[in-house]
């Protein structure tokens, strides 16, 4: 009953939506009442006008909404339908209400009766959603059926072009657009109106009236045993036979069920192509016009009996259900595919974001490393500049002091031989002190160089450990990321090798600095020993006691070899003494 209600509701939907609206934009109560009365009449359901007034509520959403006309239609009309009504008359009543308003005014190749049959077929093949449309797959099925009934070839390529044009603009056609398509003759070129009409009628009989097969055959009477020509019509559970194909005078029915069977009979009594239909209460002998017709009828009747035994619907209804199920399955698969594509797209976007984040992190790390290298180079340049400046300053001080020493040496040449010998010993002492100072300066320089090399070695080790950690993290990435980061890893490995070489070079330089430091230290010890030795020698010299007598507390002079052995006042006194001796000698 659910399928029957759906079929009835489609025709009622066409009739209801075709009703004229009043000034408020709604269907008037009188027109609803007339429609309900006509529906009750054709469906053989008692009409209750009082129930219409009590249960109906206005609704702008049409007859298939949850409110308004739908509750009344279900409760007081559709639920009371028993199936004992004429479907053609019911559809014709609904067609009369909607055809005048919606049927195209353009001249068509088909008659109004053919248009009515196409409209009924549309209601059978359309989707169960509103507004009603017929999808391209069902349009192709219907056009194929009509083309086969006309006996012409199916133009698949032409329909594919039409289907592509249709899919780009909409999901399907309405009933009136389908009538215009068939009535335009686009897929029945070269066929006259009568051929097209006969083809539509044949498809209508099969799909709507459930006519599985029909045609003239001879039937043997039960009483007179005479043979009479009859028009036989095979339906899913009955075979009706008429005087002629106009179906006006019905002569009887053959009720079919799962217990019936059909058998071929040999030719006899001058009759050929005989077969027998056995039922529970009667047996019918029938003669077909030729062997082909006989085989077709036997096969058709046997197929119908088999369907009755299996409880299956007619072939065209079962095929429609399969097509609908297949479309639903394809739609579900398409939705699932779209959902998976969206998930893959979202995952891909997330992956791209992660890769972009990693790329930015790598760029930031590279920028930081470059900045640190720049700062290190800048610091190194500043240290070199400072060292060069200090070295120049020390050279100037040394040059100045050397000039002073040269001047003082020229004055000391005027001393006696004994003083010269003492000066020679004193000069040797100064050279020893200079060696000691130079050794100390070399030691300080080596110590600074060693500290700088240690700092660079520590920085390189930290950078090496950082690159090594980044390399370990990079190795732990997915195989897809390894391929992408392979070039970066090679560059880092090359940089790592360069850093290792630099580190080894720094190690060698540090070892050389240590060796230099040890040599300077040994020189310093040697110089200290020499200084001590020279001091002992000077202590035993004849005039040394006078030179190291306690003098004034004034600050001592600083020479290029360290503190002087006499004060500035003593130096002035000595100069005066030397000048007096020089004047006396002259």
TrEMBL record:
Keywords: Cell membrane, Cell projection, Coiled coil, Cytoplasm, DNA-binding, Membrane, Nucleus, Phosphoprotein. The keyword Translocase does not apply. The keyword rRNA-binding does not apply. Pfam families: EF-hand_SWAP70_N, PH. Residues 210-306 form the PH domain. InterPro entries: EF-hand_SWAP70_N, PH-like_dom_sf, PH_domain, PH_SWAP70. One of its GO terms (molecular function) is DNA binding. One of its GO terms (cellular component) is plasma membrane. It is found in: Cell membrane; Cell projection, Lamellipodium; Cytoplasm; Nucleus. Residues 316-537 form a coiled coil. SUPFAM superfamilies: PH domain-like. SMART domains: PH (SM00233). The SWAP complex consists of NPM1, NCL, PARP1 and SWAP70. Phosphatidylinositol 3,4,5-trisphosphate-dependent guanine nucleotide exchange factor (GEF) which, independently of RAS, transduces signals from tyrosine kinase receptors to RAC. It also mediates signaling of membrane ruffling. Regulates the actin cytoskeleton as an effector or adapter protein in response to agonist stimulated phosphatidylinositol (3,4)-bisphosphate production and cell protrusion. PANTHER family: SWAP-70 RECOMBINASE, SWITCH-ASSOCIATED PROTEIN 70. This is Switch-associated protein 70. The gene is Swap70.
């Amino acid at each position: 009953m659910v399928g029957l209600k759906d079929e009835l509701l489609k025709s009622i939907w066409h009739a209801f939506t075709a009703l004229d609206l009043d000034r408020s934009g709604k269907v008037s109560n009188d027109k609803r009442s007339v429609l309900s009365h006509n529906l009750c009449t054709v469906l053989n359901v008692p009409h209750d006008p009082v129930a219409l007034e009590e249960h109906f509520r206005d609704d702008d959403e049409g007859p298939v909404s949850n409110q308004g006309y739908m509750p009344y239609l279900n409760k007081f009309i559709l639920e009371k339908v028993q199936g004992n009504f004429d479907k053609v008359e019911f559809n014709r009543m609904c067609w009369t209400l909607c055809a005048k308003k919606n049927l195209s005014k353009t001249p068509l190749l088909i008659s109004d009766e053919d248009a009515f049959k196409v409209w009924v077929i549309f209601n059978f093949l359309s989707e169960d959603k509103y507004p009603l449309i017929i999808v391209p797959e069902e349009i192709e099925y219907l056009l194929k059926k009509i083309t086969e009934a006309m006996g012409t070839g199916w133009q698949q390529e032409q329909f594919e072009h039409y289907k592509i044009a249709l899919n780009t603009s909409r999901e399907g056609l309405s009933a009136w657009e389908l009538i215009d398509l068939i009535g335009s003759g686009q897929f029945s070129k070269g066929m006259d109106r009568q051929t097209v009409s006969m083809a539509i009628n044949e498809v209508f009989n099969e799909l709507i009236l459930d006519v599985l097969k029909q045609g003239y055959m001879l039937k043997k009477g039960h009483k007179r045993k005479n043979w009479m020509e009859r028009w036989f019509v095979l339906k899913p559970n009955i075979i009706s036979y008429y005087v002629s194909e106009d179906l006006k005078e019905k002569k009887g029915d053959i009720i079919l069920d799962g217990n019936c069977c059909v058998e071929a009979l040999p030719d006899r009594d001058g009759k050929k192509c005989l077969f027998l239909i056995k039922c529970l209460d009667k047996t019918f002998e029938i003669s077909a016009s030729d062997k082909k017709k006989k085989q077709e009828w036997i096969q058709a009747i046997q197929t119908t009996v088999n369907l009755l035994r299996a409880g299956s619907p007619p072939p065209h209804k079962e095929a429609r259900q399969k097509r609908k199920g297949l479309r639903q399955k394809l739609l579900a698969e398409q939705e699932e595919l779209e959902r998976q594509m969206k998930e893959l797209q979202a995952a891909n976007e997330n992956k791209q974001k992660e890769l972009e984040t990693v790329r930015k992190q790598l760029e930031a790390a590279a920028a930081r490393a470059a900045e640190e290298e720049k700062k290190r180079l800048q610091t190194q340049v500043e240290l070199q500049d400072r060292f060069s400046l200090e070295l120049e300053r020390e050279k100037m001080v040394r040059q100045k002091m050397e000039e002073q020493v040269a001047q003082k040496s020229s004055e000391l040449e005027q001393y006696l031989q004994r003083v010269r010998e003492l000066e020679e010993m004193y000069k040797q002492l100064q050279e020893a002190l200079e060696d000691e100072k130079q050794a100390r300066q070399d030691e300080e320089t080596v110590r600074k160089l060693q500290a700088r090399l240690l700092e660079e070695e520590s920085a390189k080790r930290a950078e090496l450990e950082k690159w090594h950690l980044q390399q370990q993290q990079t190795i732990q990435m997915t195989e897809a990321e390894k391929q992408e980061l392979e070039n970066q890893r090679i560059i880092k490995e090359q940089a790592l090798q360069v850093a290792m070489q630099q580190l080894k070079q720094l190690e060698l330089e540090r070892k050389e600095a240590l060796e230099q430091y040890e040599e300077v230290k040994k020189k310093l010890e040697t110089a200290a020993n020499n200084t001590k030795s020279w001091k002992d020698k000077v202590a035993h010299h004849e005039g040394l006691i006078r030179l190291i007598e306690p003098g004034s507390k004034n600050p001592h002079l600083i020479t290029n070899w360290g503190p002087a052995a006499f004060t500035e006042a003593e130096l002035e006194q000595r100069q005066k003494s030397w000048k007096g001796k020089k004047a006396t000698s002259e």
